[in-house]
Amino acid sequence: MSFKETLSAQLLQLARQKGLLPEGDLPISPDMEQMWTRLAPEFLADAVPEFNGYPEVVLAWAAYLGAAVAWGWDADWDAFKSKDYAFFRGPQGFDYMDEHITADILAMPLESDAARFLADALRSLATAAHSILLHSGIEAGSQDAFKAVLAALETMYSLGAAIQLHRLGYKWSKA
Q1: Helices (H) and strands (E) in the chain, counts
Q2: pLDDT score recorded for residue 30
């Protein structure tokens, strides 16, 4: 099993234990996967320099990005699919991306129970992802470490999207 598969399985299990996701595969549409491919280079330009100082924040922000993309996929994908990374990052920049996505895209007041629940959930998953990275045995600063971080960010994006789809009432099962 690859590092990404192991990471995904462990984080998905944690998300289920916390009641964030039901049983079943991690649902993400090809549309949302393509959006990650398009947004990832600019997201990584913001995220990578911050990773060593704030790894859990960077991991959580990837999940927020996934949640925002899932919201747009549900709301009006034709209008939303052309949004650029700056739309998601928001006018205050990367440091406030969580607040921007929560308040301005997901339309949750920052002090609401829903916003606090989402923040706690994504923080918990980000902490677990960081712990898995630290205990992976991959040499820090290596090319493999960089690939592992990229895998963790993409996994967190997918989890954020799945959590948002679940919040919106989507149900899924194996095809």
Answers
A1: 7, 0
A2: 87
